[in-house]
C-alpha cells in the first residue's frame, strides 16, 4: 500500500475498533483476552516479558528499558499506552512504531479470532483488549527476543496481564483513575502488584509505607524476589546538563557513572534507575556481574520519550508534557523550577473532565506567572469555562486567560512571554509548557509538526 492507502486503511481499522468499549469503559476480567490468546496459540508465551506498572512514569520507564535492551543487542517489542498522535505508537519493534501497513495486517490476521471470542461472550472484547492482543501477535510474528509491556490501567486485571512476566517494575503508586481504581491507595497498590508473578523479580520504587507493605505481601504470596529503590538500587548523584542530566546510578551490579539522560527532572532519574535495575535483573546481574558500562551509557543517551517535558521550539522555549494528575503535575513543576530559570512561565492547560483539575492546577501554580486555559478536541475534554471556574480560586482572575482553541492558546502564550516587562527586564527567558492531558500534549506535538515516535 502507498502511504495514503495505509493511512486510510488504518482509519478504517480504528473506526471498527471504536465500535467497541473504549479504554474509559472497563470490564475487569481477563477471560476475554485469555480466550483470544488461546485461539491464537498463546503468542504472549513465546518471548520473555518485562512488565511495567505504577501511577506515573510507566511509558518513560518502558522506553528506557527498550533502549537498554536494544543497545545490548536484543530485538525488542514495546507496548505502551495511550498514544500521543497515532495509534501505531503503541506497538513498537526495533525502537520505532510499527508501520500503518503492519498495524492493519496484524488486525486483519487476528480479527476472525476476535469475532470468535465476541460471539462466545456476553460482552464483546474491548478496544484495549484487542490492541493488547495485536501487540502480542505482532511480537510473536517478528519475532522478538524480549518484550517490554506497559500496563494500561491498574495491573492485576489489565488486559496486558496475560503474560507470565519474569520481571515486574512497580513505579510510584498514587491516586489516579478514581472512577476505575477507587480512592483507597492500598487497594490501588494491591491491583498494581497483581503483575508480580510467581518466582519473578520485582523492582519497586520508593513508596508510602502502607503501599510498600501491600506490595511486599504480594511478593511473599507468590514467592517472588524483590529489589527496592533506595535500598538495593538508587540514584547516587544527579547533575543538570544541557539537554538533560548526568547521573551516577547504583544498580544491582554496581555503580554506573557518567550516564547522560536526555530527559529533564528528578522523576526521570528515578525512572532511569528502575529501568537499569530491571535490565540487570533480566540478565541476571548482581554483585559480581555488571552490565557493560558503555552499552548502558549509549542506551540511555539514545532514549526518546515524546511528550515528557519535550522541547518543541526555542526563543521562547515551548515544551509539552503529558502530566494528567497531581502527582505528574508536581513532578513537572519541580523539573521546571529546578532546571530552568524562566523570567516568565506560562502553562497552557487542557484536561479531561474526569481528572483532578484542582490538584493539577495547585501543583502548577507556584511556578506559573499566568495560566492559559484551553481544551483539546476529545469529547471527554473538560469544558474550558468549568476549568476556569476551578482555576479562579487558585490563580485569581488577573492571572487567567481563557482560549477555547489549543492553537490560539499557544499563540497567545507566545505573545505574552515575549511582551516586555519592566524597562530593564530582558525579553529572553520566557517559557511555555503545554500540559494537562496526554491528548493535549499529542495535539500540540502535531501542531508543531512533529512525527509520531
Report on the structure:
One of its GO terms (molecular function) is tetrahydrofolylpolyglutamate synthase activity. It comes from Kibdelosporangium banguiense. InterPro entries: Folylpolyglutamate_synth, Folylpolyglutamate_synth_CS, Mur-like_cat_sf, Mur_ligase_C, Mur_ligase_C_dom_sf, Mur_ligase_cen. This is tetrahydrofolate synthase. 40% of the residues lie in helices and 18% in strands. The protein is an alpha/beta fold and 453 residues long. The strands form three sheets. Strands 4-3-2-5-1-6-7-8 form an eight-stranded mixed sheet, with helices on both faces. Helix 8 (209-221) links the parallel strand 7 (201-204) and strand 8. Helix 2 (31-39) crosses helix 4 (100-119), helix 3 (58-72) packs across helix 10 and helix 11 (326-339) packs parallel to helix 12. It starts with a helix and ends in a 6-residue tail after the last helix.
